[in-house]
Design goal:
The complex is a heterodimer of chains A (194) and B (143). Chain A is an all-alpha fold. Chain A is built from 9 helices and no strands. Chain B has 5 helices and no strands. Chain B starts with a helix and ends with a helix. The chains are: A mainly alpha (194), B mainly alpha (143).
């Protein structure tokens, strides 16, 4: 979305124009849902949190000062919802993590279970599915940081603030996660060529 | 240290290109429709909230002005300290008006604060409150 176009859509959304809100939903819900799905490992939870993200957008859009930072603002809402959910689960005695799905409930496992990979009806090629599985196999902390970077336009500084960790820690964690991901993919390639 | 962090960030972003091959996931059409519907309902709710905030603020302003007017009428004439007391009263009035507005905003915003945790029931209550406001307003207009 060009800057001018987005500015215009946001201005109309501030005036509570339903068509402008539809445009925001159409443009951003796939990425918001993608992040939430990969963080939570559940289509139902991701749908619920996507809806809540957009409801919060509607409630606060008139107070939001755009200045070209709409996407980080939107994804911060989404990420905070996942964190809030994780905290609620922690209060109930369940283990805390931002990306709090367990390995068995990860998107790859879910896709195997319900027979869909959510790729708009297309069958993903083997490499893509293996990549999703490799991401599932990362630790929740590693997964969350690279997924936040991938789906949102949050800078690493903003991600570090969101996760309440130093910038160096955020970068090192992402670097380590991507290294592990690449190693896993390379290992799988080598296995498949044997 | 800053340069090291920048270099690390560039290296991480270069590595992150690997994620471009991640399978796309998206909402299906039914889920997208549900999302749009929920957004429209919330938008309508916000419109009602905004309208009642405007009405409430106007009402508070009129009421506060009336109180101030009566207070000034009742103040003793020829009293040398009356002017000073009027200034103090005006400050108190302005502060009270601001507080009332903040409370009104809080009351109307409050319905949203815990809506997610409390589910649809809280939103139903909020809609009922607005329905009640609208019905009262309609009766008032018909007087």
């Amino acid at each position: 979305v060009s800057r001018t176009s987005l500015d215009e859509i946001l201005a109309r959304a501030c005036r509570r124009d339903p068509a402008a809100l539809d445009q925001l939903v159409d443009r951003y819900s796939p990425r918001v849902f993608g992040l939430l799905y990969r963080l939570t490992g559940s289509r139902d939870v991701a749908e619920e949190l996507t809806q809540e993200t957009f409801l919060r957008l509607v409630r606060t859009i008139e107070r939001y000062d755009h200045q070209g930072r709409f996407e980080p603002w939107l994804f911060r809402i989404a990420a905070n919802l996942v964190r809030d959910r994780a905290r609620r689960r922690q209060r109930r005695g369940e283990e805390y993590s931002l990306a709090d799905h367990d390995q068995a409930a990860g998107p790859y496992a879910a896709s195997q279970r319900d027979g869909t990979d959510g790729t708009d009806g297309l069958v993903a090629d083997e490499e893509r599915v293996q990549l999703a599985a490799a991401i599932d196999a990362l630790s929740p902390a590693e997964r969350e940081i690279i997924l936040l970077r991938h789906y949102s336009e949050l800078s690493f500084r903003e991600i570090a603030e969101l996760l309440e960790i130093p910038l160096g820690t955020a970068l090192a964690r992402a670097h380590r996660a991507l290294g592990r991901l690449r190693a896993r993919m390379t290992a799988r390639e080598e296995e498949s060529t044997k | 240290v800053t340069n090291d962090l920048r270099q690390l960030e560039r290296a991480v972003d270069a590595d992150a290109a690997l994620l471009d091959h991640l399978p796309a996931v998206g909402l299906d059409d039914a889920a997208r429709d549900r999302l749009r519907r929920a957004v429209h309902e919330e938008n309508a709710r916000c419109r009602r909230r905004d309208r009642w905030l405007r009405v409430g603020r106007s009402g508070l302003g009129v009421a506060a002005a009336a109180v101030l007017f009566v207070a000034l009428l009742l103040s003793p004439r020829g009293d040398s300290t009356a002017g000073l007391r009027a200034d103090v009263a005006l400050d108190d009035w302005a502060a009270a008006l601001a507080e009332s507005e903040a409370e009104l905003t809080g009351l109307l915003d409050g319905g949203w604060i815990s809506g997610y945790d409390q589910g649809d029931d809280a939103l139903d209550e909020l809609d009922a409150m607005f329905d009640s406001f609208d019905a009262s307003w309609q009766q008032f207009e018909e007087l």
